[in-house]
Amino acid sequence: MKEQIRALRGTKDLLLKEARLWTTLEAKARAVFNAFGYEEIRVPIIEESSLFVRSLGEGTDIVDKQMFTFIDRGKRSITLRPEATASVVRAYLENNLINEMGFAKLFYMGPMFRAERPQAGRMRQFHQMGVEAIGSYSPYLDAEVIALIAAVLDSIGVAGYSIKINSLGCPSDKKKLAEALRKAVINNLDKLCDDCKVRYEKNALRILDCKNDTCKKILRDAFRGTGECLCPDCLSHFETVKKALDGLKINYIVDPYLVRGLDYYTKTTFEVTHKKLGAQDAIGAGGRYDNLIEELGGQAKGACGFAIGMERTVMALAEIPELSDGIKVFFATMGEEEYKIAFNMAMELRVQGISCELDYEGKSLKAQMRAADRLGAKYAAIIGGDELKNRSVTLRNMSTKEQKTVPERDFISEMERIFFNI
Ligand SMILES: [Zn+2]
Ligand SMILES: [Zn+2]
Prior knowledge:
By secondary structure, the protein is of the alpha+beta class. The chain has two domains: about 15-170 and about 230-315, 2-Layer Sandwich (BirA Bifunctional Protein, domain 2); about 330-415, Rossmann fold (3-Layer(aba) Sandwich), CATH 3.40.50.800. It is about 40% helix and about 20% strand. The chain contains 16 helices and 16 strands. An eight-stranded mixed beta sheet has the order 1-5-6-11-10-9-7-8, with helices on both faces. A hairpin with a 5-residue loop joins strand 15 and strand 16 (about 405). Helix 1 packs antiparallel against helix 6 (about 140-155). The protein is elongated and about 95 Å long. One zinc ion (ZN) binds near residues 173, 230, 231, 233 and 234.
């Protein structure tokens, strides 16, 4: 036998039950997104690398270390998307939604790619669903987006998560913040981890993201949080967001050290964590990004959004929700004449939307009944020698084990009566 080819490290097949679970979760999320007025957008998986370099910013881990970038045959630098916000904003501008819709609420679901060391909840191909609301500076939008992430997690069945929020302020506040951070660590520069030494030079805000205990302590001893760098406008924006959340009875914690490492975030930023997940405890995160639209060539517009990590969300589920049903009917047969009758009946039912299955491997009747069980069939339709002779079908209810004989010519209408109530 030839050697088998395996899936790449950091990628994973979603099979059967797991795929059904994901479909169920996605359907629940879609319903919530729609209720909040979001429409789906499907953007490409590959983009020009410059889209991500320009939007996420140099000096971020994603751009510096984690992008899957390659040169294509036309000598262009192409990147597998590490996240979707930049693509959604590009699409919003390129397709002129700015004029068509003005304010736009868009949601997406799909795979993202980052070259990270694979570990629990961290894959190289991972999956996110998220929203982008583009075209408003209103603090009520920030509160609504935070309420939406909570509503999605609630409907999916994630319990016991916590929401942390903070404000980074406008671009000039962020400059003040970077200076304050540099000042806070300057006397202890040699004690910082290697990453933070680079961050000090390139992107001081990211020092706040460091998980290293020494870095954390140095920073917290000398820096009281982002609040002291906010201008009056940004302070009042943040106040309104908090009051709106209070009004909605959304539980949140203000974490003055919370920043999002990406360049495009301004003002409100938030993160949802779950203790079930250990060190990598974020299920989702987001915030406002008032500069990105301009940065990508549009006119300045406020925007806000979030992304939820699917793998992490599945790990944090309180319980596995009820999945969509198994098949309705399994035809178990003996002999070719019997099989032909079942084959035609199965096709007729399938076309009507009644799911059914039969044997393709010449299995014994016993093995066919086991297959019916495994597929979660509601009924087994048995056609053996006696049934063939009497032009009938034995219909077995798989949960009650009751059996009855149905004339062959009435079988389809009997199934319609059972499954469609007609
Ligand atoms: Zn400000
Ligand atoms: Zn550090």
